[in-house]
Amino acid sequence: MRLQVIYNIVKLLSYFHPVFRKDRVPDARICMLNFYRDHSRVILKLISNQFGAAFFAIALGLAASSSNTVLFLCTSIFSILFLLFLNHTVLWEDGAKSRIRVDAGREKYNPLTGLWIGVCAGIPNIILSVITAITFFLSAKDGPFAWEWAGNICGIANVIARLWQGMYLGTVQFLAPGNHYILLLAPLPTILGCFISYWLGLKNCRMFGIFTLERPDGKKK
User: pLDDT tens, 21-61?
Assistant: First the structure.
């Protein structure tokens, strides 16, 4: 079931990125499965990172939300940065390894690989956000439908989405409380962060290189 969902999303992306195009490979399904197989370890690491960051953010949020909204926002921002840092270490290393394979001629140069890895890892976010936004629209009392069953689904999806995206709770509460559509932006930090981190690894550029200590002989510690 998980592979089928990922296949459908990657098939949609095939219209925008040539690595999944049918005119480049005999079967888009085989290409998708190969991509997921080659990067499944990284994708699962990113998903586990989000689970840990969400749990960490909820724990901080429970203590901060009872105090004031600004402190709740600060814990949310810190949790988001913590997640981006965890993902950066994973994607930078993967990009650096890809650079070695590219230089050896065993892999084609593709700086957008990190972007698609981020999309695959963000599939749970995308699904939950889209379901929440659509059912919220269908269940709105001042909307054209006001369907009760959609409201029930929206409530369940919203609870699951806020638990899974716990690091964004403080930010959402501060910027747009009660706005379900803002959850559609939740996958963007992970996707963009993965793209930038993988590209930096591919270029062998360290984001935190300015903090690297050097010995008097010029060698890095």
Answer: 444 444 556 677 788 888 999 999 999 999 999 999 998 88
How confident is the model at residue 211, as a pLDDT? 42
Q: What is the Cα–Cα distance from 29 to 32, expressed in whole angstroms?
A: 5
Contact 116, 19 (CB under 8 A): yes
Closest CA to 172 of 161, 164, 183: 183
Res 145 pLDDT > 50: yes
User: Which 3-state string (H, E, C) describes the chain?
Assistant: CHHHHHHHHHHHHCCCCHHHCCCCCCCHHHHHHHHHHHHHHHHHHHHHHHHHHHHHHHHHHHHHCCCCHHHHHHHHHHHHHHHHHHHHHHHHHHHHHHHHHHHCCCCCCCCCHHHHHHHHHCHHHHHHHHHHHHHHHHHCCCCCCCCHHHHHHHHHHHHHHHHHCHHHHHHHHHHCCCCCHHHHHCHHHHHHHHHHHHHHHHCCCCCCHHHCCECCCCCEC
